[in-house]
Amino acid sequence: VKDPKMTKAKKEKVEEESGSTENTYQDLIANINAIAQPLASRKLTKKLYKCVKKASKQKQIRRGVKEVQKFINKGEKGIVVLAGDTLPIDVYCHIPVMCEDRSLPYAYVPSKVDLGTSAGSKRPTCVIMIKPHEDYQEAYDECLEEVTSLPAPL
């Protein structure tokens, strides 16, 4: 979408239709905060977004800090996906600790806007829990395997 004659409004319209943004993975990584470890690779990030999309169609996601925190405390299982560009960090810095205490897999993705979009929301979302479900079990298992193989933060 790099056409010099195209206006800004027109560019945004084209981006909306194609479902892609101009920001590359590298651009997004530049904006992540200090605690975003383990960070998902570009490939895993795409897989996680797809899995979130499938899960949200089946109503099998928990969205937002309060909701995810509540269900982690209740002992619900799933993959926790956190946005790496959330500021201030204090909003959700306790979630990885809760996940480690209950041995839940978690990973950071670079963008809260993309995470919210993949969940079918117009609002950015800083944390989502994907619950297992038979309709997308294969995608879930693949993500689970890759997220658990990520190096643990120090």
Automatic annotation (TrEMBL):
Keywords: Nucleus, Ribonucleoprotein, Ribosome biogenesis, RNA-binding, rRNA processing. Residues 1-22 are annotated as: Disordered. InterPro entries: eL8/uL1-like (IPR050257), H/ACA_rnp_Nhp2-like (IPR002415), Ribosomal_eL30-like_sf (IPR029064), Ribosomal_eL8/eL30/eS12/Gad45 (IPR004038), Ribosomal_eL8/Nhp2 (IPR018492). Belongs to the eukaryotic ribosomal protein eL8 family. It comes from Lepisosteus oculatus (Spotted gar). Pfam families: Ribosomal_L7Ae (PF01248). It comes from the Eukaryota. This is H/ACA ribonucleoprotein complex subunit 2. Common component of the spliceosome and rRNA processing machinery. Required for ribosome biogenesis. Part of a complex which catalyzes pseudouridylation of rRNA. This involves the isomerization of uridine such that the ribose is subsequently attached to C5, instead of the normal N1. Pseudouridine ('psi') residues may serve to stabilize the conformation of rRNAs. Gene3D superfamilies: 3.30.1330.30. The keyword Cell cycle does not apply. Its main location: nucleus. Residues 47-139 form the Ribosomal protein eL8/eL30/eS12/Gadd45 domain. It is found in: Nucleus, Nucleolus. GO terms for cellular component: box H/ACA snoRNP complex. The lineage of its organism: Eukaryota, Metazoa, Chordata, Craniata, Vertebrata. One of its GO terms (biological process) is mRNA splicing, via spliceosome. SUPFAM superfamilies: L30e-like. The keyword rRNA processing applies. One of its GO terms (molecular function) is box H/ACA snoRNA binding.
